[in-house]
Write a structure and sequence with these properties.
globular; 46 strands; single chain; mainly beta; 22-stranded antiparallel β-barrel
């Protein structure tokens, strides 16, 4: 038997793995087969196909072009694998430019080109193609992202929520969560849409009563494009205060069944897609996590385990009709394993973390029909989420139990119509049946804001209804665009659940490069179903809550010195009212909660909280049309909320300065290198109440904030540099993608908060919560 130095043993597998990884990155592959770019050209409003549109693509061998057929479809074969941009032109329409199109040999690449009518060509005026097109009803605070911009974000782990952190005004929570904190708002103020269907959550291990969670639920391989609104969003979007994320999925491949096997940073997955007869297509994916094995290897007492699945069917029964079915679901199981005796840090994690199991799904369908100079849609869906939270004290006595099921069944009828060349309208009506079954118990522990236990066994069934109308009008040779709209909503579960939300917007083009824009409006959001269902002695206690109100305004200027480069500055202000605060401790606003695992709002509340947010943002975006892409953002902002005393204090999300620089370089068709630098000023921290924390720690292992000193202290500054390298292989009909993603490559310690501790190593009773350390991930995908 041969022996070797034990000190070198731990290094040998790592060196072997590194050598294997390096050899794979450097492996030249074989001569690549050619790829296909195909798609459809449609009118942006009416969705009618645009025959004879000219599609042009620049290749290494020169320009390639093709005319769209009578049904608006086109097909451009014989392209070398790589990243392309397609330009579309048609008399009477503004030119369109779509970038970041990855062509590969394993399957055709689909692109939907949407064009807007214009009369300027008839006057001999040249209009530049705009790769930053967003809805005409959203003159401000809208960003369009391609699937490649989402997938390739260094440190983003191919997770849509983490990729959005590269945008201005978006502050994430702690490193191990997917909270979207937009322009000073909390994690419960966002709305998500998937193929036009609203989904309550896009994360695993979601926080009930908010919208954050641990890891992304949406499969990036499905995405065709993403629209993200950080303010001033159109009237069609209701029940949201800070942001709207709208994801549109790609169709399945028409040329037979195709597949993709992926090993990512936290899960392994299989994606399949193909044709559905001659008039349809389908997609399906399933993913399984392996985080539980990683956490076990690291000796942590938590074992998160999840499955998720996603599906899509698209059918064109006639040349004027389109039917889409979408489904997404998850199974989340969270186990806790007692640590070894004497391991104080892991024992504290074991004591304070809730047992958290969840099941969820959303299924829905959309029927879209072209009618005259417009389109009408009927959208119906059902969302179901089952939550199971539990906590026991050191004596194994139950101190918390939340077994609840939430159901949402919305039905929407909506339309878009072009009245004439300069006027468009959008309209819609909706009705939503909502329900929650709640079995809740919360013990009155030393740190609780209430003196008596909360016990609720309730079943709530109610309706939410709404309607909206918005119009867009263009003036002065289309240089001036005005939009006005309003929506009305009613939540029947509340004593006073009616709300009216007017919205205005304008944009003015100062020449071909500079545009001024502005928007203002009222925005409302209903309280969480969990909060509305709470009872005391069988009597509902939160029916007097009101829809939370946010009055906001945005003013901006955008400069486009190059076709694929945009530089934008926006200022915003937001005024909050009617925010729920805790009845038994009205110092505490729900606006400061929701950034941790578990649930918020399951107690008596009062609608008396106020708040405000202010800020200025600088955003530079360069689309990938040659070898370089860039997202650069700086945000200067403040976020403050008040309880019943009206005294504004920094919110938990009050990060005054945020810098995000994300960039990439493609030295050729096979390689892509990317980097992301994120720098944040200190986060607010509420010091612990020493006496109450000591008593609570003995019972549950947790500390208790001193709510008289909300946001009185701050953590240190945060800085993190992430790197990503990607190598693409083509093997004549199938291809592979290998990536290495290194988070916090400088291994900088980032203190992002504190937990209460009685560990003698921390005599001040504060154990720092550190952000992600130096953490390399590698993964691959094989497409066939």
């Amino acid at each position: 038997m041969r022996f070797f130095d034990s000190s070198a043993a731990p290094l040998r597998p790592a060196l072997q793995a590194s050598a294997l990884l390096l050899s794979l990155f450097l492996f030249p592959g074989i001569a690549a087969a050619q790829g296909i770019l195909e798609g459809r050209v449609v009118d942006r409003v009416t969705r009618a196909p645009l025959a004879s549109a000219l599609l042009e693509v620049e290749t290494a061998a020169g320009a390639r072009s093709v005319l769209a057929g009578s049904d608006g479809t086109f097909r451009l074969p014989g392209l070398e694998p790589g990243v392309y941009a397609v330009r579309a032109t048609l008399l009477g329409y503004a030119p369109a430019l779509v970038t970041d199109l990855v062509v590969q040999s394993s399957r055709p690449t689909f692109v939907l080109v949407e064009m807007r009518p214009t009369a300027l060509e008839l006057e001999g005026i040249t209009v530049a193609a705009d790769p930053f097109q967003v809805p005409s009803t959203a003159p401000v605070s809208a960003t369009l992202l391609s699937p490649e911009e989402v997938r390739r974000t260094p440190g983003g782990l191919q997770d849509i929520s983490r990729s959005l952190l590269s945008l201005p005004g978006v502050i994430g929570g702690v490193d191990n969560r997917n909270d979207l904190l937009v322009r000073g708002g909390g994690p419960g103020e966002n709305a998500y849409y998937l193929d036009g269907i609203r989904i309550p959550q896009i994360n695993h291990f979601a926080t009930q009563g908010a919208t954050g969670g641990a890891l992304g639920l949406v499969n990036v391989d499905f995405i065709r494009e993403t629209e993200f609104f950080t303010g001033g969003f159109p009237a069609r979007y209701g029940d949201a205060l800070s942001s709207v994320l709208s994801i549109r999925n790609r169709p399945g491949t028409r040329d037979g069944v195709r597949g993709d096997v992926t090993l990512g940073a936290s899960e392994a997955g299989l994606t399949l897609d193909g044709p559905l007869g001659g008039d349809g297509n389908w997609l399906f994916s399933v993913r399984r996590s392996y985080l539980q094995f990683l956490f076990e290897a690291l000796g942590l007492p938590i074992r998160p385990d999840y499955w998720d699945a996603q599906g899509r069917l698209e059918w064109f029964p006639t040349d004027r009709d389109r039917v889409v079915w979408t489904g997404i679901g998850a199974l989340d199981e969270f186990d806790l394993v007692a640590p070894d005796a004497g391991d104080i840090e892991n024992q504290e994690i074991f004591d304070r973390v809730l047992d958290n199991d969840q099941k969820s799904y959303t299924v829905g369908g959309l029927w879209e029909r072209q009618v005259g100079q417009g389109v009408v849609r009927l959208v119906a869906s059902r969302s179901w989420t089952d939550y199971r939270f539990r906590d026991v004290d050191g004596a194994d006595v139950e101190v918390l139990r939340n077994r609840s099921t939430e159901v949402r069944m919305p039905l929407r009828l909506e339309g878009e119509t072009r009245l004439d060349a300069a006027t468009e309208i959008e309209w819609g009506v909706m009705a939503e049946r909502v329900g929650v079954d709640l079995d809740l118990f919360q013990e009155a522990t030393p740190g609780s804001p209430f003196d008596e236990p909360i016990t609720t066994e309730a079943a709530l069934r109610s309706w939410r209804t709404g309607a909206y109308l918005q119009t867009v009008r263009r003036f002065a040779d289309e240089r001036l665009r005005l939009t006005a709209g309003a929506r009305v909503d009613h939540d029947a579960a509340l004593d006073e659940g009616a709300s009216v939300s007017p919205r205005l917007g304008a944009s003015l083009a100062l020449g071909s490069e500079v545009t001024l824009s502005a928007a203002a409006g009222w925005f409302h959001q209903s309280p969480a179903l969990l909060s509305v269902a709470v009872e005391e002695d069988g009597i509902p206690v939160n029916r007097d809550l009101l829809p939370i109100r946010n009055v906001q305004g945005v003013l901006g200027v955008a400069w486009r010195p190059q076709e694929a480069l945009r530089i934008q500055v926006e200022g915003f202000w937001k005024e909050y009212s009617r925010y729920p605060v805790l009845r038994d401790d009205p110092r505490i606003s729900l606006a400061n909660l929701g950034g941790d695992y578990g649930f918020v709002g399951a107690e008596p509340l009062e609608p008396i909280g106020d708040g405000r947010a202010r800020g200025v943002e600088l955003f530079v975006q360069r689309k990938l049309t040659d070898a370089v892409w860039l997202l650069g953002a700086y945000t200067l902002s403040s976020s403050e909320f008040a309880g019943s005393d009206g005294k504004l204090a920094p919110s938990s999300w009050d990060v005054r300065h945020a810098v995000d620089l994300t960039a990439g370089w493609r030295p050729g068709s096979r390689w892509e290198l990317g980097t992301k630098l994120r720098v944040l000023s200190g986060r607010p921290f509420t010091p612990f109440d020493e006496a109450r924390s000591a008593a609570e720690y003995a019972r549950t292992g947790r500390g208790v904030p001193d709510w008289d000193r909300i946001g009185a202290e701050r953590t240190g500054a945060y800085a993190r540099l992430d790197l990503r390298a990607e190598r693409v292989f083509d093997f004549g009909g199938w291809n592979g993608r290998l990536f290495l993603d290194v988070q916090n490559v400088l291994a900088r310690p980032n203190e992002i908060g504190f937990t209460y501790t009685q560990d003698p190593a921390f005599p001040d009773g504060r154990r720092p919560i550190d952000g992600t350390g130096l953490l390399p991930f590698f993964g691959f995908s094989v497409e066939f």
